Amino acid sequence: MSNVMDLILSSNYFKLFELPVDFNIDEPQLTARYRQMQLAVHPDRFVNATDQERRLSVQHAATINEAYETLRDSMLRARYLLSLNGISWDDERDTVMDTEFLMQQIEMREALADVTEQPDPLSAAGDMLDRVQSLIGQRTGKLSDCFTQQDMQSARDIVRQLQFLYKLRQEAESLEAELEDAL
Fold first, then answer.
1. Which pTM was predicted?
2. 19: which residues sit within 8 A by CB, 6+ positions away?
3. Count of structural domains within the chain
4. Are the CB atoms for 26 and 19 separated by under 8 Å?
5. I need a surface site. Which of 42, 53, 99, 173 has the fewest CB within 10 A?
């Protein structure tokens, strides 16, 4: 128990889950370690403890939850890795992007807006979703390579591109759901 508490107090999220600091993680190991740690600090185990120990248990459980959610989600994990390497940004102010990528985004958004005008809108929405998912997969592969090569600036740029693609995917999924509901 105190070993878990020591890990929580003294480490980054990767160390907390005894994982190498890397973009590519062993998700089953992450989940297994998460469950072990949650059992160790679960507030129900501290029913007869002091108020301070109960508070610490709740705080530690929250830290473990936050760390798990961060490492489980590839986008949050990437941003966390960047922050560990001293890279941060202000989403509101840092708006410079690759022109080619921005043009691709404009074209894809126009194509998404035109989906309802297609002879088979549901199929067109599915095709758009497949295209976006493919781009996300490609960018995620490049992101993994950037982290492996310690190219944090390129990793940062790809994370920003992925943010756009995730938003586009969400919009395509919403449109597809609307079209399915209309059937």
1. 0.85
2. 25, 26, 29, 30, 33, 71
3. 2
4. yes
5. 99
